[in-house]
Specification:
Elements lengths: L11 H18 L2 E2 L3 E2 L1 E6 L13 E7 L5 H4 L7 H14 L16 H7 L3 E2 L7 H6 L1
Parallel strand pairs: 4-5
Antiparallel strand pairs: 1-2, 3-4
Length: 137
Protein backbone atom coordinates (compact mmCIF):
# COMPACT_ATOMS: atom_id res chain seq x y z
CA UNK A 1 0.00 0.00 0.00
CA UNK A 2 1.24 3.49 -0.81
CA UNK A 3 0.76 4.75 2.73
CA UNK A 4 3.32 2.24 4.05
CA UNK A 5 6.20 3.59 1.93
CA UNK A 6 8.79 5.70 3.79
CA UNK A 7 8.50 9.40 3.12
CA UNK A 8 10.84 12.32 3.63
CA UNK A 9 9.33 14.85 5.93
CA UNK A 10 9.18 18.41 4.71
CA UNK A 11 11.14 19.57 7.75
CA UNK A 12 14.15 17.51 6.59
CA UNK A 13 14.45 19.19 3.19
CA UNK A 14 16.11 22.38 4.51
CA UNK A 15 18.67 20.28 6.38
CA UNK A 16 19.44 18.21 3.29
CA UNK A 17 19.79 21.31 1.12
CA UNK A 18 22.03 22.99 3.70
CA UNK A 19 24.29 19.94 3.85
CA UNK A 20 24.54 19.83 0.06
CA UNK A 21 25.43 23.52 -0.14
CA UNK A 22 28.02 23.08 2.60
CA UNK A 23 29.58 20.16 0.70
CA UNK A 24 29.71 22.25 -2.48
CA UNK A 25 31.30 25.15 -0.60
CA UNK A 26 33.94 22.90 0.94
CA UNK A 27 34.70 21.44 -2.48
CA UNK A 28 34.97 24.93 -3.94
CA UNK A 29 37.35 25.93 -1.15
CA UNK A 30 39.78 23.21 -2.18
CA UNK A 31 39.90 24.26 -5.85
CA UNK A 32 42.72 26.39 -7.19
CA UNK A 33 42.20 29.67 -8.95
CA UNK A 34 43.73 29.15 -12.42
CA UNK A 35 45.07 32.69 -12.72
CA UNK A 36 46.35 33.28 -9.21
CA UNK A 37 46.92 29.86 -7.64
CA UNK A 38 45.30 28.44 -4.53
CA UNK A 39 43.01 30.70 -2.54
CA UNK A 40 43.18 28.56 0.58
CA UNK A 41 46.34 28.43 2.64
CA UNK A 42 47.18 26.34 5.64
CA UNK A 43 48.06 27.78 9.00
CA UNK A 44 49.25 25.72 11.91
CA UNK A 45 47.66 26.42 15.26
CA UNK A 46 48.40 24.76 18.54
CA UNK A 47 45.21 24.06 20.48
CA UNK A 48 44.99 24.21 24.25
CA UNK A 49 46.91 21.38 25.94
CA UNK A 50 44.95 18.25 26.64
CA UNK A 51 44.68 17.28 30.31
CA UNK A 52 47.68 15.26 31.47
CA UNK A 53 50.05 16.50 28.74
CA UNK A 54 52.43 19.43 28.66
CA UNK A 55 52.67 20.08 24.94
CA UNK A 56 49.67 20.74 22.73
CA UNK A 57 49.36 18.76 19.53
CA UNK A 58 49.43 20.84 16.34
CA UNK A 59 46.36 21.10 14.17
CA UNK A 60 45.93 22.36 10.63
CA UNK A 61 43.44 25.13 9.92
CA UNK A 62 42.75 26.26 6.37
CA UNK A 63 42.59 30.01 5.92
CA UNK A 64 40.78 31.68 3.05
CA UNK A 65 42.99 34.09 1.10
CA UNK A 66 40.96 37.25 0.54
CA UNK A 67 43.23 38.23 -2.35
CA UNK A 68 42.39 35.22 -4.54
CA UNK A 69 39.20 33.64 -3.17
CA UNK A 70 36.07 33.59 -5.33
CA UNK A 71 32.73 34.76 -3.94
CA UNK A 72 31.71 31.24 -2.89
CA UNK A 73 34.75 30.88 -0.66
CA UNK A 74 34.42 34.38 0.80
CA UNK A 75 30.85 33.54 1.81
CA UNK A 76 32.21 30.81 4.10
CA UNK A 77 33.59 33.59 6.31
CA UNK A 78 31.47 34.89 9.20
CA UNK A 79 29.30 37.93 8.41
CA UNK A 80 30.17 37.72 4.68
CA UNK A 81 27.19 37.05 2.46
CA UNK A 82 26.74 37.33 -1.30
CA UNK A 83 26.58 41.14 -1.28
CA UNK A 84 29.73 41.67 0.79
CA UNK A 85 31.58 38.96 -1.14
CA UNK A 86 30.78 40.78 -4.39
CA UNK A 87 31.94 44.08 -2.87
CA UNK A 88 35.21 42.52 -1.69
CA UNK A 89 35.93 41.17 -5.18
CA UNK A 90 34.96 44.45 -6.84
CA UNK A 91 37.19 46.42 -4.47
CA UNK A 92 40.04 43.92 -4.92
CA UNK A 93 39.84 44.26 -8.71
CA UNK A 94 39.68 48.05 -8.68
CA UNK A 95 41.92 48.85 -5.71
CA UNK A 96 44.42 46.03 -5.85
CA UNK A 97 45.34 43.27 -3.43
CA UNK A 98 44.74 43.66 0.27
CA UNK A 99 47.99 43.97 2.23
CA UNK A 100 46.30 42.62 5.37
CA UNK A 101 42.93 41.57 6.75
CA UNK A 102 42.57 45.03 8.30
CA UNK A 103 42.49 46.53 4.79
CA UNK A 104 39.02 45.03 4.32
CA UNK A 105 37.67 48.05 6.17
CA UNK A 106 37.92 49.92 2.86
CA UNK A 107 34.94 47.84 1.66
CA UNK A 108 31.57 49.48 2.35
CA UNK A 109 29.72 47.42 4.94
CA UNK A 110 32.80 45.95 6.63
CA UNK A 111 33.84 47.50 9.90
CA UNK A 112 36.17 46.71 12.78
CA UNK A 113 33.81 44.12 14.29
CA UNK A 114 33.63 42.14 11.04
CA UNK A 115 37.40 42.39 10.51
CA UNK A 116 38.00 41.11 14.05
CA UNK A 117 35.78 38.10 13.38
CA UNK A 118 37.77 37.22 10.24
CA UNK A 119 41.24 37.15 11.81
CA UNK A 120 41.27 33.42 12.59
CA UNK A 121 39.66 32.33 9.31
CA UNK A 122 41.17 34.52 6.60
CA UNK A 123 44.53 35.71 5.39
CA UNK A 124 45.86 38.21 2.86
CA UNK A 125 48.73 36.49 1.08
CA UNK A 126 50.89 38.58 -1.23
CA UNK A 127 50.12 38.06 -4.88
CA UNK A 128 53.00 37.09 -7.15
CA UNK A 129 53.16 39.17 -10.32
CA UNK A 130 51.83 37.52 -13.45
CA UNK A 131 54.26 36.51 -16.19
CA UNK A 132 53.13 39.48 -18.31
CA UNK A 133 53.78 41.86 -15.40
CA UNK A 134 57.24 40.34 -14.76
CA UNK A 135 58.18 40.85 -18.42
CA UNK A 136 57.61 44.60 -18.03
CA UNK A 137 60.17 44.84 -15.18
Amino acid sequence: MLGDAPTIHRARWPVAITLCLFAIAITAASVQSPSRGPFVSQAYHAPAPTPGTDAPSPSVVQLIDINTAPAEALQLLPRIGPVLAARIIEDRESGGAYPSIEALDRVRGIGPRTVEGLRDMATALPIAPRASERALD
